[in-house]
Amino acid sequence: MNTSSPSLTPLLQARDGFVTQWGAIGSAWGINRTMAQIHALLITAPGLLSTDDIMADLKISRGNAHGNLRDLVSWGLVRSVVRKGERKEYFEAEKDVWKMFCIIIRERRRRELQPAMNVLHACAERTRNLKGTEATAFNQQIKALGDFLELADKIVTKLTASEQSKVIPWALKLLK
What we know:
- The protein is mostly helical.
- The protein folds into two domains: 8-93, Orthogonal Bundle (Arc Repressor Mutant, subunit A); 97-175.
- It is 72% helix and 7% strand.
- Strand 2 (78-82) and strand 3 (89-93) form a beta hairpin.
- The two termini are 43 Å apart.
């Protein structure tokens, strides 16, 4: 990006502010701050960025950039692009907001929701035959949590498998 043009200064400042804030939001959601900042940089980039571009912009090490880019690629939020005749690897982000949302929700489901459900199922299985007031209360609570997580899992699965054009009108009706 040409940074010599005075008209780009407000744009660059806004972009830097967004990248910084996206990193803070990512941290609040349990995502590595640098990973979120790289994602923000790529979703607002007008074109492809190389690892060197990302390192320079965010002032991070090659290892930090490479590791976080690898994670973003594994999530499906970023694609690696190889230009013919060049040795450098370039990156671009998925910029369709609905697709980004679905990717993030599916990944969070896989990393958080499903393991939590597995823990609840394992606890219920281990304590199913126990008798007494405490065991009964424990199992009722575990069942209630499990039922809620299973409902959330079904909603997330259905939502991320749907097209945006079908979900938005439904959501708008729900919010009225």
